[in-house]
Amino acid sequence: MSEMRKLALLVLTLFAILSTTGITLFTNRIVKPIKQLRDAANELASGDLRELVSVSSKDEILLLANDFNRLIEAMQKVLGGLTQHSVQLASSTEEMSSTLNNFTVQAQNQSASTEEIAATTEQLSAGMDLVYQSSNQQNESVESLIGTMQGLSAKIGDMGKMVVSAGQKIDDINSLAKDGETTLSKLNDSMKAVLESSTSMTSIIEIINEISDRINLLSLNAAIEAA
């Protein structure tokens, strides 16, 4: 009976280890990457585009992470171009302001020649054209950024659904794990009860055998006396 008890305890221990290992693997393969994507989405929403997402998963989560990284890279390019255009626009505006100031000074002094005034007017016109072009480029960049942000919003929405689904699965797993622990505890108690019952039954069988032996001995003695 001692061997049966050891075997039962060994089976229960192995089952508990396998259950814990399975839950740990599920957490590392699914829950952890989804949390990384959720954290990256929060950083992106706050305007942090410095880091890409790195996950070790090889399923749909990896595909979503790759799409997320491409989205971040696209936004980095758009924002970089927008910054460059803003710098160009500021420079052009400064040049135009300087040209206007020079033109005003020349007009006030009335000492500039007609050719100088014409050249100044051409510079002013060129500056206005440059500002117009920069404004158009900036508008295009803004429109591209708006489109990218709309795509990001859709991605974050899908990711939120995945996180909620994963959270529900985690809750289900935790519930199953608790149920499993309860079942293991009940099974352990049942095994102990069976082992105790087996021990008690063995004792009863031994007593019955002793009684049977005594009855046989009495019968034999009675037969001898009768003879």
Can you give a write-up of this model?
The protein is an all-alpha fold and 227 residues long. It has a single domain (2-178), classed as Orthogonal Bundle (Helix Hairpins). The protein is built from three helices and no strands. The chain has helices spanning 2-45, 60-109, 114-226. It is rod-shaped, with a radius of gyration of 43 Å.
Descriptive terms for the model:
mainly alpha; 91% helix; rod-shaped
Taking all residues together, what is the mean pLDDT? 65
Q: Low-confidence spans: pLDDT under 50, at least 5 residues? A: none
Question: Describe the biggest sheet?
Answer: none
* Class computed from helices, strands and strand pairing: mainly alpha
CATH class: Mainly Alpha
Per CATH, the architecture is Orthogonal Bundle
Distance between the termini: 45 Å
**What shape does the CA trace take?**
rod-shaped
Helix-strand pattern: HHH
How many distinct helices?
Answer: 3
* CATH fold call: Helix Hairpins
Total tally of structural domains: 1
Number of strands: 0
Radius of gyration, rounded? 43 Å
Secondary-structure topology with pairs:
Elements: H1 2-45, H2 60-109, H3 114-226
Helix pairs in contact: 1-2, 1-3, 2-3
